[in-house]
Design a protein that fits this description.
With 226 residues, the chain is mainly beta. The protein has a domain at 133-221: Elongation Factor Tu (Ef-tu), domain 3, CATH 2.40.30. It is built from 3 helices and 14 strands. It has helices at residues 93-98, 190-195, 213-222; strands at 17-18, 26-27, 37-45, 51-56, 69-72, 75-82, 86-91, 109-113, 133-143, 146-152, 166-169, 172-179, 183-188, 206-211. Strands 3-4-7-6-5-8 form a 6-stranded antiparallel beta barrel. The longest helix has 10 residues, at 213-222. It is globular.
Length: 226
């Protein structure tokens, strides 16, 4: 039993409630960075927020409720409408400005992942679906059958990236190989290239980046008290 309250954190609403013995249940949308569908953008239109995206998917739509959360290229979005083989999400202007979603077009591909349920395998690492910034592919090359990408990292995020640590790029959990002052390297294996958007990602490509949430909280704890 916890003896002190958990700090208040703004989470997306989802249907998976985890009872951890607190007076009020905590809603935890958690992903693992393992893409489960490579979907297609079918429509881009104005929505109740800044923009609405209709996304065709192989998911069984009768298992997706309105208000459910789905990670779309690493960005946790709320389902606002569903059809036979598609769902729709709204993105705010803040989301369009701070992620790659502002450049999404009809026909573009999207990595999808549904939230973990209690008991699911944590196949990648803990991912929240909160994009921290946008990385840019500086270069890529063949590396023994895989592709080795060098990603330019925003200056404010560089300190959170560590060699052999984890990073989430466009919703894909990846291991950091090497780190430099303003960039880092990752290797993407052929399977991941085939089932995610990385198969079409080239130089100057932009990717949504979420740092390891453990690094985020360690950095916060290391800050001197104000």
């Amino acid at each position: 039993m916890f003896s002190a309250p958990i700090p208040s954190i703004c989470w997306h609403e989802i249907s998976h409630k985890i009872d951890i013995g607190l007076p009020n249940q905590v809603l935890l949308p958690m992903f693992t960075g393992i893409v489960t569908d490579l979907a297609t953008i079918a429509e881009v239109a104005p929505g109740k927020a800044a923009r609405r995206f209709r996304i065709t998917t192989a998911y069984a739509l009768d298992t997706i409720a309105l208000g459910a959360s789905i990670a779309c290229n690493g960005c946790c979005l709320t389902v606002v409408e569903t059809g036979r083989d598609w769902f729709a999400v709204d993105a705010s202007q803040e989301t369009l400005d701070k992620t790659t979603l502002g450049s999404w077009k009809v026909g573009g591909r999207v990595n999808l992942e549904r939230p973990l349920k209690v008991g699911d395998e944590l196949g990648g690492h803990m991912v929240l679906g909160h994009v921290d910034g946008v990385g840019i592919v500086k270069s890529l090359r063949d590396d023994a059958g895989s592709k080795r990408y060098t990603i330019a990292v925003p200056a404010n995020l560089a300190k959170f990236v560590a060699a052999k640590g984890s990073v989430c790029l466009d919703g894909v959990s990846l291991t950091v190989n090497d780190v430099a002052a303003d960039c880092f390297d990752i290797n993407v294996i052929p399977h991941t290239l085939a089932v995610t958007t990385f198969g079409a990602l080239g130089p100057e490509g932009r990717v949504n980046m979420e740092i390891d949430c453990l690094a985020r909280y360690v950095a916060r704890l290391m800050q001197p008290a104000s």
